[in-house]
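User: Hey, my collaborator sent me this sequence without any context and asked if I could get a structure. I don't really work with proteins. Can you help?
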Amino acid sequence: MASIRGISVDQYVESEMDRGMYFAGFILMDGKNIGRFENEGEGGCTEFDFESKEDAGEFHNRVSQYFSDHPATLDDHEGFMLEVLDLMEAEREFIKKTYQLKGPFILIQANTYGRSSTLDDITEISTSYHVLQNEEELVPLQIQLRAVEYFIFRNAEDFIK
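Assistant: No problem. I've predicted the 3D structure and written it out in structure-token form, which is a compact way to encode the shape of the chain:
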């Protein structure tokens, strides 16, 4: 299961609504349910509801330490959950390709934006996935795509940060 600093998401749902994208899920820390997050799609912030003050404090500590080690423009709880959800999406793509392909492969996630991008830097937000059979194909692909940021996944352990 995709996780960052022992934090993952369970029972995630998203739905397109008249007022925007609704999404919600449960927050797991070290496999234990510690709370829930929800965004009702009205352009507002994501709401967080933790089981206890201790869980909220430990969640905050892990998020702060993560962004201390990996600076990003959106360096709050919402930005952290978006990174976890992005990692989950890449993991789903990796699992899908594992069933489709009959041998080892490398999954490349190429983004037109970076973790330190600002809205002024971004003209289009997109993520694309590419399958490579060997490392030698990586540099030509990067030159061809000209993406701002790449993530490389070789095995299931790459989805635990």
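In plain terms: The chain has a mean pLDDT of 88. You can pass these tokens on to your collaborator as they are.
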